[in-house]
Structure prediction request, 440 residues.
Amino acid sequence: MPELPEVETIARDLAPMIVGSAIVGARTDWPRIIAHPEPTLFAEQVRGRVVEGVGRRAKWLLVALDGGSVLAIQVKMTGQLFVVPADAATDRHVHLVLDLDDGRQLRLRDIRKFARVGLYRRGEGGAILGADGAAELFAHHGPEPLDDGFTVRRFRVRLRARRGRLKPLLLDQSFLAGVGNIYADEALWRARLHPLRSVGTLRPADERHLYAAIRSVLSEAVERRGSSVDDYTAPRGDGEMQDHLEVYQRTGLPCLRCGRPLRRVVLGGRGTHFCSWCQRLPAADRPGARAILRAPARPPGGRRLGSGSAVERAAATRRAAATRRAAARPGTRWTELAAGEGVVGLRWGEGRGSRRSPAAAGPREGAGTEPRGGAGGAGAAQPNAVGATAREPSAGGAAATEPNAAGAATRAPSRGGAAATEGNAGGAPADAGLRPARAR
Prediction:
């Protein structure tokens, strides 16, 4: 399910494309996609509204309309938004179409039909009111973790008022808004905290490290346009954070810090990835976590992750997801359009080789990967002459990634002078994911 970085990317992509446009019509072939009001009334109330802005709250996309109305969209697991000409090809998975006054359409495409759209109004204080018109729509959501006002002191106060384990707490939207399964795992790994650790065992230094890790991983993911792990794609294309995840979907691969195999357990129905060496579980928490840690992490097929068949299934899943994303993007690239046009994404045949897919950039679950090189921030992605994406080094010194003549990605040395393929800061070899870790 798209999390804070993915929804933020969608909002940033949509804003320059639809702000100032008027909605002249709305239709749906799946009435349940309209959460509020009922579909006929929704079409009447949204018609004639002018888009004034596009923003985000938690995992919701907020399209501000004139007259104090707000179009709230939850893309959920497989929802995708595109702005295309009215005569652009469509398919049976497009379930909501908003006609714009300039001949374009805002389309919501959702294979699994989990997405929801609602039309709400703002109260006197500017808060978005729910369906009853009285309670605030986001009254039960926690603060935004990237807001300037969300300080480490405020985080500590909220943390010390809670009980239970860290991973379920980070997924609780009433605690923090927008954090989901991917970035909860990544933040806990960066903070060196076990996902099964209880909140009451945290020291002040642990609280500070977790606060910093949450903000750093979310900020990096926003800059990298989110993680296109499954069906997520934005109006202007896929994200690239999936190529830089350090623990999520890397079961059995060497930890990028210590080289020991990463583990996966199921906690609250969610796959949870961690390093049992770097993220030590305090002795007080071990008895209660013993049953969870001993349970084998098995994929739906029944075999352990890391087996040959599991590796093949994971690779097949990545290829299928990349194909679905490519199939959803009609027309030419947004950056290649003439002024005034609105087709976005890639043509069907452009999906292969035009950008690094998760499968091409490096395997995740049950397959090899390479650690990140260089020390510092990520480079910005720039399209090259043949349409492939090359990352240029940023001021922080991150390694650039450019395609070679054979089409494979190669990593250039970072500013520190060491090639990114030689190893990471923790000393793990770059090809550690391609061979078993040494016994320790």
Summary: Residues 331-362, 366-440 have pLDDT under 50 and may be disordered. The domain at 152-372 is CATH 1.10.8.50 (Helicase, Ruva Protein; domain 3). The chain has three domains: 4-121, 152-372, 373-422. The chain has ten helices and 15 strands.
